[in-house]
């Protein structure tokens, strides 16, 4: 054995303790760590031929790379839609690496059963029916891709072709309808061979990002009975608007379409008593996307996809190899997603759900919504600042009379907060997204103070 490797094996307990101590220092200081960093430009180091051992690598990371890492795990990182990692989720993630299970199959390990149990918990938490099955994937993009791939196979079923065997060309023209689709949906259409041009934007309600259901019905009527895919939104990125899922689903009595719901973070509205009505009808979808490294607060990367048609899912993703065997009634996960080898992402989610339950995660969701509402109130009272939409859930979208790009940079350079820029209805804007388990009212007030300084 290499001497450095042998030495690390002998010192394994001490190495893990040193890593634990270093991680603890990072986490205890996260509230005061700069939320965003300008890492500058580091020239790549040459490939090391003589290593420095694990302790040396830890020291080298702390010196060379850690100073440039953001405080994205902390309470005032409001860019994108980024959660943190609850203590239990972090423990589960550490054990994920420790046990290093390949979650692709059911041979010789109970890890696949743990994933099934976790998916069942999530299904129940989001009030989906028992006919939904699900699988862990890397994020919302892959969850949307899997859901739309199953929808593509469903189109073939309606038209008498098997896309998984004959190819997407056998379908002929495909129509995908949506009001305000996330960019990952468009990316998925490209990857699936359906094509970006297959997406047809349907008019939205006046002043809203929610689709006009009457307009959707009109477009479906134009298709003359040809099956389509409808992508509904349960929480748009800019304003967290929700399509009327129940009304859209009711159109299937007249028109044939696969209903995919992008509920990447909006699904968590189900946990808030005051907002659960926003996801009414989610259980009527054919496939659903939920991103877990957002509001479930598990480490990157983690998402789940749900569908009613596991048979079609297996048809798309089956890995036909002699050593894998037939999928059978309880297929290995290798037959359900684009990945073959895959880490046991479910373990971090299992840990945080087991540790805090629905009630604990409900408290996080409700507190984050309250934080977003408070920021919205503070911004509405600032001269020159305009809220571009109501604060419907956990995102505050606003603009002001100054330079948005310069403000984003100045806010980041302050180290106090991080927001991302956007454009809403042609207006340059900023958005603050609350999804971290640590965020408090005090954090909101700190963000307000830095915004007062830079929104001029």
From TrEMBL:
Its cofactor is pyridoxal 5'-phosphate. The keyword Acyltransferase does not apply. It comes from the Bacteria. It comes from Actinoplanes lutulentus. Keywords: Decarboxylase, Lyase, Pyridoxal phosphate. GO terms for biological process: amino acid metabolic process; carboxylic acid metabolic process. Belongs to the group II decarboxylase family. GO terms for molecular function: aromatic-L-amino-acid decarboxylase activity; pyridoxal phosphate binding. The modification N6-(pyridoxal phosphate)lysine is found at residue 294. Coiled coil: none annotated. This is Glutamate/tyrosine decarboxylase-like PLP-dependent enzyme.
């Amino acid at each position: 054995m290499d001497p450095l490797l042998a030495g690390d094996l002998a010192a394994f307990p001490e190495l893990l303790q040193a890593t634990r101590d270093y991680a603890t220092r990072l986490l205890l200081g996260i509230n005061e760590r700069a939320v965003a960093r300008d890492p500058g430009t580091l020239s790549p180091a040459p490939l090391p031929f003589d290593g420095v051992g694990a302790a040396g690598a830890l020291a080298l990371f702390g010196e060379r790379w850690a100073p440039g890492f953001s405080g994205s795990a902390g309470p005032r990182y409001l860019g994108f839609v980024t959660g943190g990692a609850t203590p239990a989720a972090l423990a589960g993630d550490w054990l994920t690496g420790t046990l290093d299970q390949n979650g692709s199959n059911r041979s010789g390990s109970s890890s696949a059963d743990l994933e099934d149990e976790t998916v069942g918990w999530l299904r129940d938490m989001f009030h989906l029916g028992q006919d939904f099955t699900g699988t862990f994937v890397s994020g919302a993009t892959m969850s949307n891709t899997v859901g739309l791939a199953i929808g593509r196979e469903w189109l073939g079923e309606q038209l008498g072709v098997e896309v998984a065997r004959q190819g997407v060309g056998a379908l002929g023209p495909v129509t995908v309808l949506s009001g305000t689709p996330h960019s990952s949906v468009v990316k998925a259409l490209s990857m699936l061979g359906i094509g970006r041009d297959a997406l047809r934007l349907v008019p939205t309600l006046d002043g809203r990002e929610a689709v006009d259901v009457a307009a959707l019905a009109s477009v479906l009527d134009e298709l003359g009975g040809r099956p389509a895919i409808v992508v509904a939104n349960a929480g748009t990125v800019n304003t967290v608007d929700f399509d009327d899922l129940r009304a859209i689903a009711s159109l299937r009595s007249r028109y044939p379409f696969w209903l995919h719901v992008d509920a990447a973070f909006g699904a968590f509205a189900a946990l808030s008593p005051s907002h659960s009505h926003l996801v009414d009808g989610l259980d009527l979808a054919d496939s659903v996307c939920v991103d877990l490294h957002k509001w479930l607060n598990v480490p990157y990367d983690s998402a789940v996809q749900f569908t009613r048609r596991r048979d079609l899912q297996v048809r798309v993703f089956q890995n036909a190899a002699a050593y894998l065997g037939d999928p059978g009634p309880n297929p290995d996960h290798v037959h359900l997603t684009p990945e073959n080898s895959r880490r046991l992402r479910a373990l971090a989610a299992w840990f945080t759900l087991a540790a805090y339950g629905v009630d604990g995660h409900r408290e996080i969701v409700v507190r984050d919504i309250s934080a977003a509402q408070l920021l919205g109130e503070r911004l509405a009272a600032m001269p020159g600042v305009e809220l571009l939409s109501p604060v419907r859930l956990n995102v505050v979208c606003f603009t002001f009379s100054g330079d948005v790009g310069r403000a984003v940079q100045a806010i980041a350079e302050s180290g106090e907060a991080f927001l991302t820029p956007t454009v809403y209805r042609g207006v340059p804007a900023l958005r603050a997204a609350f999804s971290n388990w640590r965020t408090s009212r005090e954090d909101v007030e700190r963000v307000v103070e830095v915004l007062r300084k830079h929104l001029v």
